[in-house]
Amino acid sequence: MELYAGKINKLIEELSALPGIGVKSAGRLAFYLINEPEEHVKRLADAMLDAKRNIRYCKECFTLTDQELCPICSSQKRDHKTIMVVETTRDLAAYEKTGKYEGVYHVLHGAISPLLGIGPGDIRLKELMIRLRGEVDEVIIATNSSLEGETTAMYISKLIKPTGIRCSRIASGVPVGGDLENIDEVTLLRALEGRTPL
Amino acid sequence: MELYAGKINKLIEELSALPGIGVKSAGRLAFYLINEPEEHVKRLADAMLDAKRNIRYCKECFTLTDQELCPICSSQKRDHKTIMVVETTRDLAAYEKTGKYEGVYHVLHGAISPLLGIGPGDIRLKELMIRLRGEVDEVIIATNSSLEGETTAMYISKLIKPTGIRCSRIASGVPVGGDLENIDEVTLLRALEGRTPL
């Protein structure tokens, strides 16, 4: 006999498929949701579907956004000649939180990883090279300081060299092996200030 | 400027309102969902709404179910003259997992707590007393061994005394202050076997 009613089991199963949520947390969440007012559950369900259905890539920097151009790319206040290359939208958000970076971004959506079979063609690198045909002063490579991030940084710097565009890497203030999104803002800023030419 | 597109922020906000999920986990979940196929997100959203909309109380034992009568109350194989009183549907599930209890349940949906202003009228106690007018051999009180659970157990035993129905309390194999749902099955069984008359 099943422990709970079918619909509760189904919900627990779906919730426990989420990253970082085990069966026990899923059970807790399921009963929490069942006891919440229906409009609250509806709001959460709608937010999930709405985000999933209406989020697309910014046609300039490829971050996730709900407009054709993201707020950063469409802002007149930003320096569009400085492009920071990051792996994910969440890394972009980590630098935005510092409030001090005034350039724009380019989101790769991944990093080169021969081990995982992710090559240069699997991330938004071609799109970066196309952007560099425009007026660009500097490319700041802010991929993670992991093996994949470093590999990607080296690869990009070699691609950019022939174009004559200045290319830098954020300083090693970022702890080796760490993910950008888990690092405090002061360290992120120090890494930006201490960037070195590649 | 907002860090993410409005719809992503909205989703993160909704997710971080869930118990045990902070802003960082909510961000991780949000980007996970945005990158999943739409049918997966739809399945999760539907499971949430479906559970919320179609779950009701079993008219006999008041556990959460999607039928008029829960599978346990409608089973011919169970001993309907033995009623185990638990605080929540999840405590019921904890005893069901042992696979050894053959009676039925009564779910109070809470415990008496003068501190929180929860009195006997706020839990499903009246409904238990109505059930006891039928043919019942024994009531096993399996509320948590917390202050509230013990208070509730004492209160119920005093209510039952005049009816002449046998009334027992699960043994103190359950660690003091612990929640039933976090306890291993062997301990739960030992507590059941060692129950003492009240």
Helices and strands of chain A: which structural class? alpha/beta
Q: Low-confidence parts of chain A lasting 5 or more residues at pLDDT below 50?
A: none
Q: Could you please say which CATH topology of the largest domain in chain A applies here? A: Dna Topoisomerase Vi A Subunit, Chain: A, domain 2
Q: What is the total tally of β strands of chain A? A: 7
What is the name of the CATH architecture of the largest domain in chain A?
A: 3-Layer(aba) Sandwich
Number of domains of chain A: 2
Q: What is the CATH class of the largest domain in chain A?
A: Alpha Beta
Q: How would you describe the oligomerization state of the chains in this entry?
A: homodimer
Largest sheet of chain A: 5 strands, mixed
Q: What Rg of chain A is obtained from the alpha carbons, in whole angstroms?
A: 21 Å
Shape type of chain A = elongated
How does this structure look, described?
The structure is a homodimer of 198-residue chains. With 198 residues, chain A is an alpha/beta fold. Chain A folds into two domains: 6-54, Helicase, Ruva Protein, domain 3 (Orthogonal Bundle), CATH 1.10.8; 64-197, Dna Topoisomerase Vi A Subunit, Chain: A, domain 2 (3-Layer(aba) Sandwich). Helix content of chain A is 41%, strand content 14%. In chain A, the strands form two sheets. In chain A, strands 4-3-5-6-7 form a five-stranded mixed sheet. Chain A has a two-stranded antiparallel sheet with strand order 1-2. In chain A, helix 4 links the parallel strand 3 (79-86) and strand 4 (103-107). In chain A, helix 4 (89-98) crosses helix 7 (185-193). Chain A is elongated, with a radius of gyration of 21 Å. Chains A and B meet through helix 1, helix 2, helix 3, strand 2 and helix 4 of A and helix 1, helix 2, helix 3, strand 2 and helix 4 of B.
